[in-house]
């Protein structure tokens, strides 16, 4: 399988729950390597731009309010089939539907406050990585 990169966000609820390290362990356990990372408190404009594909949806204002409610950790994950692998370990958008052992099953409390974001395709990943990181902020892999 091809080596890919994907964009991951640990959302404000999970940062507030102090489970950043536990979520990073899930990435590493799945064979995904963190090749860039930063903590950020998103502005309204940054959150609106990031989720622009959802701007006509009824939940958009609530989503932007939540994503700007506290700091997030944004990272680039690299590994074999990283986009789908990351989505698999995140679990379903609504934690009520998330498979046992997934990040959302274990750390998310609702569909609105669901702990993590992950790019949903290689095209989204390319756009989302460039949204947060310049090329020089992404480290070469060590293995
Ligand atoms: P994400 O983009 O954050 O990784 O989540 P996702 O792909 O699993 O879900 P998506 O459809 O892209 O929705 C983005 C975020 O909007 C919130 N949402 N709320 N109330 C609702 O019906 C609803 N639907 C989506 C969720 O927080 C979701 O993660
Ligand atoms: Mg999405």
TrEMBL record:
<dbReference type="GO" id="GO:0004550">
    <property type="term" value="F:nucleoside diphosphate kinase activity"/>
</dbReference>
<keyword id="KW-0963">Cytoplasm</keyword>
<comment type="subunit">
    <text>Homotetramer.</text>
</comment>
<dbReference type="GO" id="GO:0005524">
    <property type="term" value="F:ATP binding"/>
</dbReference>
<keyword id="KW-0067">ATP-binding</keyword>
<dbReference type="Pfam" id="PF00334">
    <property type="entry name" value="NDK"/>
</dbReference>
<feature type="binding site">
    <location>
        <position position="59"/>
    </location>
    <ligand>
        <name>ATP</name>
    </ligand>
</feature>
<keyword id="KW-0418">Kinase</keyword>
<protein>
    <recommendedName>
        <fullName>Nucleoside diphosphate kinase</fullName>
        <ecNumber>2.7.4.6</ecNumber>
    </recommendedName>
</protein>
<keyword id="KW-0597">Phosphoprotein</keyword>
<feature type="binding site">
    <location>
        <position position="87"/>
    </location>
    <ligand>
        <name>ATP</name>
    </ligand>
</feature>
<dbReference type="GO" id="GO:0005737">
    <property type="term" value="C:cytoplasm"/>
</dbReference>
<feature type="binding site">
    <location>
        <position position="93"/>
    </location>
    <ligand>
        <name>ATP</name>
    </ligand>
</feature>
<dbReference type="InterPro" id="IPR036850">
    <property type="entry name" value="NDK-like_dom_sf"/>
</dbReference>
<dbReference type="InterPro" id="IPR023005">
    <property type="entry name" value="Nucleoside_diP_kinase_AS"/>
</dbReference>
<dbReference type="GO" id="GO:0006241">
    <property type="term" value="P:CTP biosynthetic process"/>
</dbReference>
<dbReference type="InterPro" id="IPR034907">
    <property type="entry name" value="NDK-like_dom"/>
</dbReference>
<comment type="function">
    <text>(Microbial infection) Catalyzes the phosphorylation of dZDP to dZTP, when the bacterium is infected by a phage that produces the substrate for the synthesis of dZTP (2- amino-2'-deoxyadenosine 5'-triphosphate), which is then used by the phage as a DNA polymerase substrate.</text>
</comment>
<keyword id="KW-0808">Transferase</keyword>
<keyword id="KW-0547">Nucleotide-binding</keyword>
<dbReference type="InterPro" id="IPR001564">
    <property type="entry name" value="Nucleoside_diP_kinase"/>
</dbReference>
<comment type="pathway">
    <text>Purine metabolism.</text>
</comment>
<keyword id="KW-0460">Magnesium</keyword>
<feature type="domain" description="Nucleoside diphosphate kinase-like">
    <location>
        <begin position="3"/>
        <end position="140"/>
    </location>
</feature>
<keyword id="KW-0546">Nucleotide metabolism</keyword>
<feature type="binding site">
    <location>
        <position position="104"/>
    </location>
    <ligand>
        <name>ATP</name>
    </ligand>
</feature>
<feature type="binding site">
    <location>
        <position position="114"/>
    </location>
    <ligand>
        <name>ATP</name>
    </ligand>
</feature>
<feature type="binding site">
    <location>
        <position position="11"/>
    </location>
    <ligand>
        <name>ATP</name>
    </ligand>
</feature>
<dbReference type="GO" id="GO:0006183">
    <property type="term" value="P:GTP biosynthetic process"/>
</dbReference>
<comment type="function">
    <text>Major role in the synthesis of nucleoside triphosphates other than ATP. The ATP gamma phosphate is transferred to the NDP beta phosphate via a ping-pong mechanism, using a phosphorylated active-site intermediate.</text>
</comment>
<comment type="similarity">
    <text>Belongs to the NDK family.</text>
</comment>
<dbReference type="GO" id="GO:0046872">
    <property type="term" value="F:metal ion binding"/>
</dbReference>
<feature type="active site" description="Pros-phosphohistidine intermediate">
    <location>
        <position position="117"/>
    </location>
</feature>
<dbReference type="GO" id="GO:0006228">
    <property type="term" value="P:UTP biosynthetic process"/>
</dbReference>
<keyword id="KW-0479">Metal-binding</keyword>
């Amino acid at each position: 399988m091809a080596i890919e990169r994907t964009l991951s966000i640990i959302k404000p609820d999970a940062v507030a729950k102090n489970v950043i390290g536990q979520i990073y362990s899930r990435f590493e356990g799945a064979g995904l390597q963190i090749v860039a990372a930063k903590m950020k408190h998103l502005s309204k404009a940054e959150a609106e731009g990031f989720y622009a594909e959802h701007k006509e949806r009824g939940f958009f204002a609530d989503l932007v309010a939540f994503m700007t409610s506290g700091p997030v950790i944004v990272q680039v994950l690299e590994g074999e089939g990283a986009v789908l692998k990351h989505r698999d370990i995140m679990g379903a958008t609504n934690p009520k539907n998330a498979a046992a052992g997934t990040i959302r099953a274990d750390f998310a409390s609702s569909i609105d406050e669901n702990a993590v974001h992950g790019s949903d395709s290689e095209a989204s990943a390319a756009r989302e990585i460039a949204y947060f990181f310049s090329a020089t902020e992404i480290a070469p892999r060590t293995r």
